[in-house]
């Protein structure tokens, strides 16, 4: 026969304090004498007391959890692209340090968005991070209007004024293409990212800015940040301009697809065609040849997103977008 579950009253009796004092300690209040706090925590451990989280949330008005929402289908989030896992790792690190739970949710469809909105506005979480947004994604504004603290990963196409953490996308792309121009490449193509995402738009802008003052023309194909779309786009570029001698891909997954096509078409990299990517995923340094790319601190972005949403959930402010720097990493492919 098992013993009854320990209660606040039993912990209070063991520690020799009131039930209210035990409640303040287990709910994280700092207004408790350190010696009394130690006595209560010792009683909690001895009795094996586990707080009733539902009752605790009613008292504290906190769920002690944060939702990380990807506006993508499961096949995209759980693909071989490490960008998603890096963001999750970074956010998780901050949640663990703050003793909060992380709830992963997908909103890649209208039904998914409705489910996320119902769950988060019912106060099951203290704040929401929305990542990988496409177009005029209605979710961030819908949540903010309902009073939910919202932080966006990447600058939203709309919803001006919502706090966000973004990368120096245009500047990083411009630096990559200027590197190709400086190397004497004449026909520099790009595999742009999706044009309903700010990262795709900004990196195409950076590419065009780098070519604007030169006598080189833009040669553009558009992908969707997957390796498969890089394959398709590279084939298109070779058909459109067989004499191209450089490619800037808006992410490494598409660059890896481009390398595959170039290799199969008999083009030597970098002798015939130089290739530059964007991200610096682990596979970039193991590509054949190793990929020149623009490094962006995705894990650090996740941590910054976590810190920002926790600050907002605690009643703090967010001053303007946080823009993280990028860095060109030169390897053998360019």
Automatic annotation (TrEMBL):
MF (Gene Ontology): DNA binding
HTH lacI-type domain ranges (all copies): 6-60
Source taxon at top rank: Bacteria
InterPro entries documented for this protein: HTH_LacI, LacI/GalR-like_sensor, Lambda_DNA-bd_dom_sf, Peripla_BP_I
Keywords: DNA-binding, Transcription, Transcription regulation
Protein's UniProt name: LacI family DNA-binding transcriptional regulator
């Amino acid at each position: 026969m098992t013993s009854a579950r320990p209660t606040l009253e039993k912990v209070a009796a063991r520690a020799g304090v009131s039930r209210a004092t035990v409640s303040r300690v287990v709910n994280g209040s700092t207004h408790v004498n350190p010696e009394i706090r130690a006595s209560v925590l010792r009683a909690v451990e001895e009795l094996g007391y586990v707080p009733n989280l539902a009752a605790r949330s009613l008292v504290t008005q906190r769920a002690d959890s944060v939702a990380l929402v990807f506006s993508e289908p499961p096949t995209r989030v759980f693909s071989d692209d490490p960008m998603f896992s890096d963001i999750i790792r970074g956010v998780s690190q901050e949640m663990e340090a703050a003793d909060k739970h992380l709830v992963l949710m997908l909103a890649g469809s209208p039904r998914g968005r409705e489910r996320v909105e119902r769950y988060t506005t019912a106060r099951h979480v203290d704040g929401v991070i929305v990542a990988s947004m496409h177009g005029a994604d209605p979710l961030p504004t819908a949540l903010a209007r309902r009073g939910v603290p919202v932080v966006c990963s990447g600058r939203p196409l709309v919803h001006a004024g919502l706090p966000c953490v973004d990368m120096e996308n245009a500047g990083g792309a411009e630096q990559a293409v200027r590197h190709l121009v400086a190397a004497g490449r004449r026909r520099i193509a790009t595999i742009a990212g999706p044009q309903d995402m700010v990262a795709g738009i900004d990196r195409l802008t950076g590419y065009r800015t780098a070519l604007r003052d030169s006598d080189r023309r833009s040669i553009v194909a558009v992908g969707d940040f997957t390796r498969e779309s890089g394959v398709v786009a590279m084939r298109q570029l070779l058909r459109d301009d067989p004499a191209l001698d450089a490619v800037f891909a808006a992410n490494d997954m598409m660059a890896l697809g481009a390398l595959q096509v170039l290799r199969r078409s008999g083009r030597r990299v970098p002798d015939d065609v130089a290739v530059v990517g964007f991200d610096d995923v682990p596979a970039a340094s193991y590509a054949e040849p190793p990929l020149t790319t623009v490094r962006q601190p995705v894990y650090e972005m996740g941590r910054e997103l976590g810190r920002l949403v926790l600050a907002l959930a605690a009643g703090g402010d967010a001053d303007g977008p946080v823009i993280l720097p990028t860095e060109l990493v030169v390897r053998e492919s360019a």
